[in-house]
Amino acid sequence: MPREPNPTHSLVMTNNEALTTNKVAVVTGASQGIGAATVAAYRKLGWNVVANSRTIASSNDPGVLTVPGDIADPAVGARIVETALSEFGRVDTVVNNAGIFIAKPFTEYTAEDFDAVTAINLRGFVVVTQKAVEAMLARGEGGHVVTITTTLTDHPVSALASVFASLTKGGLNSATKSLAIEYAKSGIRFNAVSPGIIATPMHPAETHEFLSALHPVGRMGAISDITDAILYLENAPFVTGEILHVDGGQSAGH
């Protein structure tokens, strides 16, 4: 018998028994840009998706369950994974896409800036990933965690003061490698995609010429460049601990 819908969830499942046979991806920061495109990419593979962001709208797609809430709140991170398990029965992949970017000269950062950046970029990553890895270990069939970082960790740009991005996202790159080794024998892979500047709604059109010039190839990245990289990693079972630069050559030099 189908389960009764949980009123805290964003859509009513119509065929839970069939959907639980599919793989399940969790995507944070999923309301627009790279996150929304990642949800669509996994759906095209036939996966079910649990999608989170602070103000994400409900979905009419029975394979997409939305969980609104601020990833900086540990209770939200736990609820995302609990939702995946209760409605779809498993978690196969987590895409840690949610993040905050505050560009300021170092001496102008405030304590509030630090708290905001670390809460989303670091604590959000830790809570969701911990809960998902616990579920993967319990099932004993492995899994995958992909984290979106930034090429600024390897190639700072003088025109863009952004040390808090390097501080947090650089830590996530290191954590990706450490976790890849810790869980290699459990079949859980950890990788990161390290983008250059991507043409998303956060960058106004009038900034595109300047931002394009920061890349050796002379253009900003497209959202599809990142989703293609995520899906490559998804389908590369011998790849773990990889920081995949998708940055138009930025990390190689300029």
Automatic annotation (TrEMBL):
This is NAD(P)-dependent dehydrogenase, short-chain alcohol dehydrogenase family. Belongs to the short-chain dehydrogenases/reductases (SDR) family. InterPro entries: NAD(P)-bd_dom_sf (IPR036291), SDR_fam (IPR002347). It holds the Pfam family adh_short_C2. It comes from the Bacteria. It comes from Paractinoplanes atraurantiacus. The keyword Flavoprotein does not apply. Keywords: Oxidoreductase. One of its GO terms (molecular function) is oxidoreductase activity. Transmembrane segments: none annotated.
